[in-house]
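Continuing from the previous page...

OK, I double-checked the sequence for VOC domain-containing protein against my notes and this is the correct one:
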Amino acid sequence: MSKARNLRTGHVGLNVTDLDRSTAFYREVFDFDVLAEGKDADRRWIFLGRDSRLLVTLWQQSEGTAPTALPGLHHLSFEVDTVDEVRAAEEVLRGLGAEFSYEGVVPHGESGTSGGVFFADPDGIRLEIYAPTGADPADAPTAGAPTCGFF
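Thanks. Re-ran it with the corrected sequence; updated structure tokens here:
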């Protein structure tokens, strides 16, 4: 008997420092709907998703910036259908003043066709929006390792 034969990622929960700021960011970039929220002063949270499907939960219970030098979440990646959708998201992110790891849409590796944009949310959590094709013929920003591995 196989363990968890139909295993799928459910949702991702993120600690944030300012729930209102992060909610606005994730809703603008990903067009998420608010599915539920907690408004108690010391227990603020929000559930975000689409079509009633929970995708991201935000919990206001942290301080500082997400550290990249400590164990934990490396990055959170979202797949879209086309590189045009990646570019549209990039424009939204530029309008929000997001910090990018690389300039423009980049492939996941040398001679790769999948690729996207790599950026940080307001708390420094590393994110990616990518498409399975359309990132070629650009050069990969790192050689010998996946672009999403060391940014």
